[in-house]
Design brief:
With about 130 residues, the chain is an all-alpha fold. The protein is about 70% helix and about 0% strand. The protein has one domain. α1 (about 5-25) packs antiparallel against α4 (about 85-110), α2 (about 35-50) packs antiparallel against α3 (about 60-80) and α2 crosses α4 (about 85-110).
Length: about 130
């Protein structure tokens, strides 16, 4: 069973952090419309995955690890486009980890929508005679 309050909260926080990241990136240069949409969708998707995940780790580690997993492909692609290890790879990795942690923290501690492990309900079968 999906905990709707958690999924909505994490997804909304992902969108908000997407706009924040877009704003931060526009200070260093022009960001195209497709780049802005990609950034916002990337953060929204990360928030959604944090919300639906029932990974059995502590909440703070959950946000850090999902942020790490989501930022790894982007960090390597920043190397591919020539941004380098410091400004591209490391910064992308750190931002993904920090935003993953913040999404999880705000959802778990502020909105009180902690992770729930799905419970399987067993129904007794009625025998017809």
């Amino acid at each position: 069973m999906i905990y709707e309050k958690r999924v909505v909260s994490t997804t909304v926080w992902g969108v908000i952090f997407g706009f924040i990241l877009w704003g931060l990136l526009t200070t260093s240069g022009k960001v195209t419309l497709s780049g802005a949409v990609s950034i916002i969708l990337y953060q929204a998707l990360m928030g959604f995955v944090i919300g639906i995940s029932a990974w059995k780790v502590s909440w703070w580690l959950h946000g850090l690890l999902i942020g790490l997993f989501f930022s790894l492909p982007l960090a390597f692609s920043s190397l591919w486009i020539g941004m380098g290890w410091g400004r591209g790879f490391a910064l992308t990795l750190v931002i993904g980890i920090v935003f993953g942690f913040l999404i999880e923290t705000l959802t778990t501690l502020v909105f009180k929508a902690e992770m729930r492990i799905p419970q399987v309900e067993e129904k007794k079968e009625e025998k017809e005679e």
